[in-house]
């Protein structure tokens, strides 16, 4: 074990010679650090001056590494995995405590195995491959953003613009493959996908790029995500420009490699900008801080640089040096030393010309690594700190739109709040809000200088028409069937589909393929499965949208509402001579008749003393109560003999003059009105109703019975009855069409037929027209669904055709197509049949009778109370001319005797009210005279 102090730093440049870089100050202790990157590359040309500037700034700073100087040893990986590995081994032979780089993810994978063995932390500013975060690379520290977050940003962009499919164009190495794999995972979370992966070999020629773009241009998607190396990526846009793929309708999204190219020049090349007009790109976000502005000023004074400006990789490389400096400062201040020891496994290779024995293990490498991961400071890129997964905290990207002569920022992305027009720094202080309504970007100028969002796909220009499967039915040919026309099919569903396709703003070449043999109805579940398995591109027909099918295909907006209903056989009601009695039960007839007599009697009692029309001989009074109807030939004298039952059908002519009589009559007429209306409605229903031939009256009775049930062959009704309603499979009988429906229902369950048929409402309506309403729908629809066109998952045609179907519905064309094929006079009476007793019972009206009865009794009580009061004041002796004053019998005694004379009371009631009042007045005058005479006699 030994302490190493290195005073010379070797730099391997383009010439491959070793030179010495003198430090700006002398120190008692020197620590070697390495740097690995491709010097002659877009990233390398920007990173090299930044790393050198960072070393100078660290060595000149009194705040870190007091008394210790960092010596930088740079090796050029030459963008080669093999040479990069050799250069890394040569670098490690210099006993470095850490290495900055590499920029390539592929080289980082190889070198990570070397640093793992030698315990040397590897701080990479450019290796963005997400798989490098794996536990198998413990000494790899990513000091830039992970492509896992960048691909999440791309997926959010795709979802923000409502695209479902993209084509990935990527370089076929660890960087490209693993980045696109992360993109695929991120898109799946947004219900989008990569429809095609177009890979390029590293350093592909323009010819190869052109051939690849010609192939992808024939495909459906027009959204391209480009994830390549910055040194060769512009060749893609040069080829796309020549192929006319930078025009309206195309979408190009690039990862941060493109801004790395453009940011390297203070003024981007006009020819380059012409190629990338309308492109949307991402760039690693770095805050606009004062130290970043200071670095920009300092950059202009750096003489040994090959670019007029710098990209974001230069900033991360600069911060990587400072991260190592802060970590070493803490490491050394904690009392730890830097020591190396020989690896026994490497010393066994002394006989090799590779001189691997020169490599030594950094004994304190793990402690320095832990210090690096726990260090936190604010650098050019913002806050530098690692989370538990060894990723930088607060990953964020600028969303750029390339147009004109420069780059325009249209928003930002962060894992804290997604897409936003506000800088991420201003959002970290708020609660995370990743909701769809919180995603915002400024407007984009797309290729072709248009601000209208591209649809993102076209019908593929590969000469293959859309394969449309059409069910070849045995029955209900109005819906869809085979035809001799050029299309080969016809029907309601075909007309709706053709009308919707004609509304699309692009042509859709299509070829109809019959599914089934026409001898029986095909299985619609098999049809949907065939679309899901890519045997067909779409299914057009009477395909019902149900839950299980939506899991494997995408449906359009329903163009026809549907639902399962029950059809049963009916028979016409035979004429009955006594049908007019059926509306009411016997009890109802009895109570109604009794109340007619009762109310008639009550009104007669209330009117008899006041109304001369209610007087006459006893025979005439009885007729008045019982008479049913008036006769137009009766004389005025006989018109009093018709009141009670006349209230049922006629407006009686008798005038009621008493207040109580009028009150009772008004209430009774209200009761009669309700009874009369109910009778009329019930009789109408009874005379027109059809009777069911089975006990099936709805879904409940269907389930509880054991009778066989017919269903249409091939539809989902068969599985629905079994799985959802738990009906025994033995009860269900598949039928092919109208004729089998008729025969099965006519035979009934006793003769080998069915008690009911369960089918969708559109079919049932056609069946009713076919049978001229011989059968009947009972109950209500017990499912709610609809017919739609089925497409493969994530097919953009499903969404566009849904919009077209809504447009057909709004402008009335959908109804016209329906009337052309399916219109028919509907059969009335979809409710339950008349098999049950429809008579109205007393329980329906007892409340009315109760109110009427109470009113009559109250009126009678008031009336008789008045009669008794009058009777007590009445003196019949006065009327006979006798002396009413007797000394031996008091007046009160006479009242008591008369009060029990019922005959006198009846005679008193039978007198007219006017006569009673006149006698009471005479009695009062007589009493007054008698009192006066007695007073005179005593005096």
Automatic annotation (TrEMBL):
It is a multi-pass membrane protein. SMART domains: PBPe. GO terms for biological process: cellular response to oxygen-containing compound; response to wounding; signal transduction. The chain crosses the membrane at residues 588-606, 660-679, 845-865. One of its GO terms (cellular component) is membrane. Residues 467-824 form the Ionotropic glutamate receptor C-terminal domain. It is found in: Membrane. The keyword Cell wall biogenesis/degradation does not apply. GO terms for molecular function: ligand-gated monoatomic ion channel activity. It comes from the Eukaryota. SUPFAM superfamilies: Periplasmic binding protein-like I, Periplasmic binding protein-like II. Its main location: membrane. The keyword Phosphoprotein does not apply. Belongs to the glutamate-gated ion channel (TC 1.A.10.1) family. Glutamate-gated receptor that probably acts as non-selective cation channel. This is Glutamate receptor. It comes from Centaurea solstitialis. The lineage of its organism: Eukaryota, Viridiplantae, Streptophyta, Embryophyta, Tracheophyta.
